[in-house]
Inverse folding.
């Protein structure tokens, strides 16, 4: 059966329960939430501190207190049972001089040109297969992990301290960086920044591996302040030049296994006095990072990023300042900051509820968790690519914009096509134990309610729920009880697709 037409979007004002209501009282925003605790809020916590989970996961969290629920996410359980990092093929190594440029005016003979073309095709294939293996492994880990906040924070850092396979960065180095983000998921941001500054993937991606005293390269120094720690307006061009001098000599040595090891090449380090953000000395890269995190702008920058990722976009300046104060109080240790944020009034406010657009990764991973499927297929990877989020391959050093940028006419169509592919996939639907009892009822209202409760926690406007019930067997259609088992199954699958096409399912 062809996919039914998606239900008409419901205006925000008509959807009632999940839209922002009223202005936020920033004076109490970060105080602990003391309101009612229910299934909807438990699901909200799982979507933000993870990727969503199954109805059983939501029920389990809802059965505890809010504080116990947050504790279970903040204190990571063991992940030893998860699959180890995927085996990655070593990239082919050309013979010495094989790819070296020719002298001016000299042309390669046909055999040499063909050999080079063949080698490049082989290397590109190995890189492509490695990238697919890495993406599949990480997506499966996100779906299956007993520590969802650990993977959510890993994704957060992946979008902040960006690197990609460009400029020859190997798959092994990107996996090492991914593990660094996981190890520091709720660790100290200053320490993480120090490690990132010495990370081979980052050193190559932003050219610090060629930053030498005779010709300082400013790429990493600039992006470290502009995009990673301070933001534009909190440093000068002179600060960039001086900090670039401090990072001279920071490079890496290539290991036989394709990874790199940080190497502080003192012969290429500028040992002169540098003046950076008002301080002077014979600074190294480590000194630069330390000075950065003494700036008030550093805590505000991090606060803004955390709020935009976990609460809502464009947070109020007063709220940013309050969270920045919590960050400074905890010396940039993220665990107590996230613990406070996930228990706060603002986190559980109407202003925050379903206020973020799901990223493509959240959309795909959350859907797999909803239906209890851990198998990642080419359909998933293709959907992520079409929706604009390829893991390990951000679009640029700024990372993904997020928010409304995730939604366009093309990406919305991709989301609907992905949802339909899930609904029509027997492996996905049969893995969801919550669907079968509703189907056995043969009652359109029961099925519609089951679908919207499981997928949306009831966040469907009355008009949308009525449309879904009508599709399942209301006026003008055969009742479910009158259909063959195959047709009942087909109609419920399509109803599941229609539910995933509702506005609330696009929102976190």
């Amino acid at each position: 059966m062809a996919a039914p037409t998606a239900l008409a979007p419901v205006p925000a004002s008509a959807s009632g329960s999940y839209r922002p209501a009223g202005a936020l009282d920033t004076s109490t925003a970060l105080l602990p939430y003391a309101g009612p605790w229910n299934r909807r809020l438990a699901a909200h916590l799982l979507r933000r501190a993870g990727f969503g989970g199954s109805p059983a996961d939501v029920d389990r969290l809802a059965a505890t207190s809010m504080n116990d629920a947050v504790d279970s996410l903040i204190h990571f359980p063991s992940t030893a049972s998860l699959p180890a990092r995927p085996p990655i093929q070593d990239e082919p190594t050309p013979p010495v001089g094989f790819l070296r440029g020719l002298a001016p005016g000299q042309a390669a003979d046909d055999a040499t040109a063909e050999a080079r073309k063949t080698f490049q095709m082989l290397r590109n294939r190995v890189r492509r297969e490695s990238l697919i293996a890495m993406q599949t492994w990480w997506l499966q880990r996100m779906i299956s992990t007993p520590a969802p906040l650990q993977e959510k924070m890993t994704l957060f850092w992946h979008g902040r301290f960006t690197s990609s396979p460009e400029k020859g960065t190997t798959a092994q180095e990107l996996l090492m960086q991914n593990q660094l983000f996981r190890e520091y998921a709720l660790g100290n941001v200053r320490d993480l920044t120090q490690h990132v500054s010495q990370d081979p993937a980052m050193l190559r991606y932003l050219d610090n591996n060629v930053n030498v005293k005779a010709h300082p390269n400013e790429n990493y120094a600039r992006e470290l302040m502009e995009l990673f720690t301070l933001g534009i307006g909190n440093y000068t061009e002179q600060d960039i030049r001086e900090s670039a001098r401090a990072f001279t000599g920071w490079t890496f040595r290539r290991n036989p296994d394709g990874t790199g090891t940080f190497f502080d090449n003192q012969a290429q380090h500028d040992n002169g006095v540098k003046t950076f953000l008002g301080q002077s000395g014979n600074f190294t890269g480590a000194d630069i990072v330390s000075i950065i995190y003494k700036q008030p702008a550093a805590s505000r920058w991090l606060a803004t990023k955390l709020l935009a990722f976990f609460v809502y976009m464009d947070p109020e300046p007063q709220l940013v300042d309050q969270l920045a104060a919590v960050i400074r109080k905890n010396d940039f240790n993220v665990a107590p900051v996230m613990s406070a944020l996930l228990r706060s009034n603002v986190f559980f406010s109407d202003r925050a509820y379903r206020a973020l657009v799901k990223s493509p990764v959240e959309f795909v991973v959350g859907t797999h968790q909803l239906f209890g499927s851990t198998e990642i297929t080419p359909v998933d990877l293709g959907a992520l690519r079409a929706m604009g989020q390829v893991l390990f391959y951000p679009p640029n050093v700024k990372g993904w914009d997020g928010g409304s940028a995730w939604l366009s006419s093309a990406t919305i169509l991709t989301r609907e096509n992905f949802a339909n592919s899930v609904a029509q996939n027997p492996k996905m639907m049969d893995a969801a134990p919550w669907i079968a009892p509703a189907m056995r009822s043969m009652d359109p209202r029961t099925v519609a309610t089951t679908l919207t409760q499981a997928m949306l926690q009831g966040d469907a406007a009355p008009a949308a729920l009525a449309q879904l019930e009508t599709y399942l067997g209301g006026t003008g259609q055969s009742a479910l009880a009158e259909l063959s088992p195959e047709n009942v199954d087909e109609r419920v699958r399509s109803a599941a697709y229609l539910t995933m096409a509702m506005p609330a399912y696009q929102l976190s």
In short: Residues 434-506 form one domain. The first strand starts at residue 250 and ends at 254. Residues 7-21 have pLDDT under 50 and may be disordered. Residues 70 and 414 are 33 Å apart (CA to CA).
